[in-house]
Design goal:
Largest sheet: 6 strands, antiparallel
Strand order of the largest sheet: 4-3-2-1-5-8
Shape: globular
Oligomer: single chain
CATH superfamily of the largest domain: endopeptidase domain like (from Nostoc punctiforme)
CATH architecture of the largest domain: Alpha-Beta Complex
Number of domains: 2
CATH topology of the largest domain: endopeptidase fold (from Nostoc punctiforme)
Number of helices: 6
Radius of gyration: 20 Å
CATH class of the largest domain: Alpha Beta
Amino acid sequence: MKYKFATFLKNYGAIIIFPLLSLLLITMIAAANPQVFNNQDAVMFTYFDHALKGHGGYVTSTGFGNRISFAGLEPGDILLGGYDECGYGRFSHAGIYIGNNQVIEGYADLGITKQSIDHYWNYSEICLLQVDAPNEIKIKAVEYAKKHQGKLFYPICFKSGEKYWNCTKIMWKAYADQGFELVEDNDFWISPDAFYKNSKLRIIREEGR
């Protein structure tokens, strides 16, 4: 009997145990954070809704593009880019403008990195957002982002902690560290769409739907 049970665990234990542990973890997180699970605009609900429609998390830039002008961007402003059928909203990527046609953003293979602004012309959905904050706060936010170049990237990292980052967390934290909140909703994560919906960010111009 013991042999059969041991064999059963060896063959099927992972199939049973890991889902149960995941369910337990989700239950514990939900109990500790009811405000997030009551927020219908939370990223997880958006992702589940898009997944049911067959939309993936990210797609390549092949065949897309825009002709937006970057005129009027100031250091500390935010760029959003996306493609049709993105898994977590209209936009799939974000960057903070640091001047001289450069942005600080996050990628899985590069971590938090400085890149040319030009690649934002590859998106079918594009939006430039001006942050409605005093200039000294915007400059400090830019300096914060610059200091975090090379930090590790993880796509679904939580808002808390400073070990892992993604493209939205770095700019949210850059402003939060100055006492300026860029997102209004209660959530574990920050979607690029959260910036688009925030009244503290003014649309300079956008292209797409």
